[in-house]
């Protein structure tokens, strides 16, 4: 009997001490741009102020849901170059995002490509205060003149850059499960002019380029040993034209505390549910 007690006692002690019996949480690294960092959404993460990360962005919410140990290096303004090189911000220099990866990283999310393609600039260039019948010019007409598609070409050029990032992720974190996160639905078919001041055909062009980028990301993920997380479909009906309590993304003039043309807190909660479900498998 005494021998049995001596054998069982260490096990009981281990179970009674928090953290002894359970394994350390899996390491999760979040990489990406402002669609992931959540600029201006309260409250700010001040670990790198120039990146305008929120404490309520989807990487942090998903990590909390799943009990993962998160390193969030997402940064507003980031493009694929900033995965490999330091990123200059207005409030300091952010290290290369890939430097956050280690051999024991278990989960990686990557949301990148929008800044490589210049899609925020595209949306801003399509802003038209005056109605179509009165004056102004269509950005869609301008960017597709002469048989070219200027932003279509820019989006296509993102593919090799994402391929290179995925290869680097696998090299630095060979055991990690990698998730490439797409971009959400920003505009409905034909937009909602004048509530959001983009003409119908221009709204369709903007969303078409976002959809094209999502396909580029999905194809890169499939070829690069990663899983693609579709945010476009869950975001349907939650675009910038919807009410402030419903939409996931803010229009040019936000009503929620978030950056223009970026996810708000509601959007981040919705995206965290989708991303968390993908990670949980």
UniProtKB/TrEMBL annotation:
Keywords: Disulfide bond, Signal
GO molecular function: triacylglycerol lipase activity
UniProt signal peptide: 1-23
Record InterPro entries: SEST-like (IPR037460), SGNH_hydro (IPR013830), SGNH_hydro_sf (IPR036514)
Originating organism: Actinophytocola algeriensis
Catalytic site positions: 34, 262
GO biological process: triglyceride catabolic process
Pfam families in the record: Lipase_GDSL_2
Domain SGNH hydrolase-type esterase as annotated: residue spans: 30-269
SS bond partners: 51-75, 126-139, 192-241
Name by which UniProt lists this protein: Lysophospholipase L1-like esterase
CDD domains in UniProt: SEST_like
């Amino acid at each position: 009997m005494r021998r049995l007690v001596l054998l069982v006692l260490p096990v009981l002690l281990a179970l009674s001490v928090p953290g002894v019996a359970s394994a350390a949480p899996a390491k999760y690294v979040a990489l990406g741009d402002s669609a992931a960092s959540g600029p201006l959404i309260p409250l700010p993460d001040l670990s790198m102020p120039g990146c305008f990360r929120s404490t309520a962005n989807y990487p942090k919410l998903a990590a909390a849901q799943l009990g993962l140990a998160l390193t969030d290096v997402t940064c507003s303004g980031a493009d694929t170059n900033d995965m490999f090189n330091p990123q200059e911000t207005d409030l300091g220099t952010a290290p290369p995002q890939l430097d956050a990866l280690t051999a024991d990283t278990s989960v990686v999310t990557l949301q990148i490509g929008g800044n490589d393609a210049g899609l925020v600039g595209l949306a801003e260039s399509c802003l038209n205060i005056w109605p179509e019948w009165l004056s102004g010019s269509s950005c869609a007409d301008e960017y597709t003149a002469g048989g070219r598609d200027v932003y279509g070409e820019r989006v296509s050029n993102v593919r090799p850059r994402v391929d290179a990032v995925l290869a680097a992720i696998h090299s630095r974190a060979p055991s990690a499960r990698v998730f490439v996160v797409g971009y959400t639905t920003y505009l409905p078919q034909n937009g909602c002019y004048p509530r959001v001041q983009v003409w119908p055909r221009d709204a369709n062009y903007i969303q078409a380029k976002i959809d094209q980028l999502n396909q580029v990301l999905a194809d890169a993920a499939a070829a690069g040993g990663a899983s693609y997380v579709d945010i476009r479909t869950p975001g349907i009906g939650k675009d910038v034209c919807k009410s402030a309590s419903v939409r996931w993304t803010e229009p040019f003039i936000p009503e929620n505390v978030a950056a223009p043309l970026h996810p708000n807190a509601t959007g981040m909660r919705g995206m965290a549910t989708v991303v968390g479900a993908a990670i949980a498998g």
